[in-house]
């Protein structure tokens, strides 16, 4: 069987990594790249740097990776859908939820594979945590808390921290819990002099009853990427920067005080850091996209899920503006 012919549009900071992975995975040939701004990282190699999505389509591609700035996601993705090209688009799916719905509808109407590059779902620590949660190792899940902090990325100019970094945490939380958001409340801050927010604190409730919280900012001198899942048997702590997963077990406090024996308190129990395979998340994500195009499996991040994530992100921004909890 011939390899899939892949195209890449957007050769910036993320595009260079997509180019590398597309060249590495089996069953795919990177045959065309495009960016109206040229090739700042020199990733095109022997390929001509095309000007736009129309030239990319004309190269005769089966699948495409879209890594252009968020404001252009809808335009580029709809053009690819109209041309019959299976597509993965970097997160968020589009600049607005309404635009995201139009993108999702375009691929549904065309009967094509369309997916969103929420790469954190493919982090080994989170994949291992989800596998263990599904096996019931944590029992009932009570709370999911995330912290995603680090220095300001000068390359991000068209969206705030909620739609850029925050969408990672919204998506992975809903995915881990297998439940959409029911409500969200948030506070934001603007400290860098930009149009968009650079800090957000958000709390929410999932349909399943799990409570969630997110701390996200671009103004921290240290980089932190933590997801903490607390349940009846303890807590999983996933560090997606190192791909480590640690289990903190509950230690039951014995008591002989009759009036409080109905309450089983929690003390520190065993701590286990799991050993598991650590493959590059971006590579695993691209393999999932390839396999979806081939019809082998379907564990990509759907466009519908991408729209839900963006709806929650916009609700968080609305909550910060209005001071109200937003029900979804």
From TrEMBL:
Coiled-coil positions? none
Source domain of life is Bacteria
Q: What is its EC number?
A: 1.1.1.370
Q: What InterPro entries does this protein's entry cite? A: Gfo/Idh/MocA-like_OxRdtase_N (IPR000683), Gfo/Idh/MocA_Oxidoreductases (IPR051450), GFO_IDH_MocA-like_dom (IPR055170), NAD(P)-bd_dom_sf (IPR036291)
Alphabetical list of Gene3D superfamilies matching this protein? Dihydrodipicolinate Reductase, domain 2, NAD(P)-binding Rossmann-like Domain
**Gene Ontology terms for molecular function:** nucleotide binding; oxidoreductase activity
Q: What class of enzyme is it?
A: oxidoreductase
Q: What single Pfam family name could you report for this chain, choosing any that match?
A: GFO_IDH_MocA
Domain named GFO/IDH/MocA-like oxidoreductase: residues: 127-236
Domain named Gfo/Idh/MocA-like oxidoreductase N-terminal is located at 5-118
Keywords annotated in UniProt? NAD, Oxidoreductase
**PANTHER family from the xrefs?**
BILIVERDIN REDUCTASE A
The name under which this protein is listed is Scyllo-inositol 2-dehydrogenase
Which organism was this protein described from? Answer: Oerskovia enterophila
Gene name in the database record: iolX
